[in-house]
Amino acid sequence: MNGITINIDPVIFHLGNFALRWYGLAIVAAISVAILVAVREGQRKGIAADDIYAVAMWGAVVGIVGARLFHVVDRIGYYLANPTSILSFQQGGLAIWGGVAGGFVAGAVYARSKGIPLARLADVAAIALLSGQIVGRLGCIVNGDAYGGPTDLPWGFVYTHPAALIPRSLWGVPTHPYPVYEMIWNSAALALLWQLRTRLRTDGLLFCGYLFLYSLGRFFLTFVRQEEVWFWGLQEAQVLALVGLSISVLVTGYLIRKRRARKTLSAASC
């Protein structure tokens, strides 16, 4: 059989009714990495570490709720039949788009309450989010909840552990290693944004770059996944990616026009 066999128990150990899962450990590690990166970037851009920690706390809570909500909506048929599973966060099933949306809302509310420029805070989040997303996908590799479709490629993942969350129809079948594809794309995007973070002088452009690059990658990479189709043959993640692409282009255009208008006004006043 071609492919890379994944025969790891998603659960590290049980302690009574509590189960420590690799997925949960990866999420904690992802949040920790994102916070460390955000604190460093925040200090560089003049945002106090205490504010970054506060935003991270609220962003993590609201982001996880949003991520779970988007996941439930994407698989609404299953959760209508199994409503008690909706709150089973520890088993996996967090949609990144929901996490980004929830975290952004929490960050916007906090920024407004503290008088922090939202665009500047968003730029800090751009680098932190990509860093966290790369780490977080490690949990999906073990969990089997972000699976791709069948493939004949030699690097396909073959899930053989009975506790893996991949559908039984794909158990033991080589599938596209979607988490790895996304990790590679996000790493390339992070490398680019890391170079641009000191060159872009307009607050907000870096976050727009993150939104554009992540949306672009998510749209095309999702073609190898097997999720429910919403419309036009597109899955939920792809529809949201198109929304993300549109927002990033529109906001980038707005920020550039605003910067040019300021320069024109400044030149006229001189």
Strand and helix order: EEEHHHHHEHHEEH
Mean pLDDT across the residues is 86
Runs with pLDDT <50, length 5+?
Answer: none
Number of beta-strand segments: 6
Described by the principal axes of the CA atoms, the overall outline is globular
Please state the CA-atom Rg, rounded to the nearest Å. 20 Å
- Characterize the biggest β-sheet: 2 strands, parallel
Quote the distance from N terminus to C terminus.
73 Å
Number of helical elements: 8
What topology, given as strand order, has the largest sheet?
Answer: 1-4
Derived structural class = mainly alpha
Helix content: 55-70%
Task: Tell me the β content.
Answer: 5-15%
Give a structural overview.
By secondary structure, the protein is mainly alpha-helical. The chain contains eight helices and six strands; from the N terminus they run E-E-E-H-H-H-H-H-E-H-H-E-E-H. It has helices spanning 22-44, 49-74, 76-81, 96-114, 118-143, 178-196, 205-221, 236-269, and strands at residues 4-6, 11-15, 18-21, 157-159, 229-231, 234-235. The strands form three sheets. Strands 1-4 form a two-stranded parallel ribbon. Helix 7 runs antiparallel to helix 8. The mean pLDDT is 86.
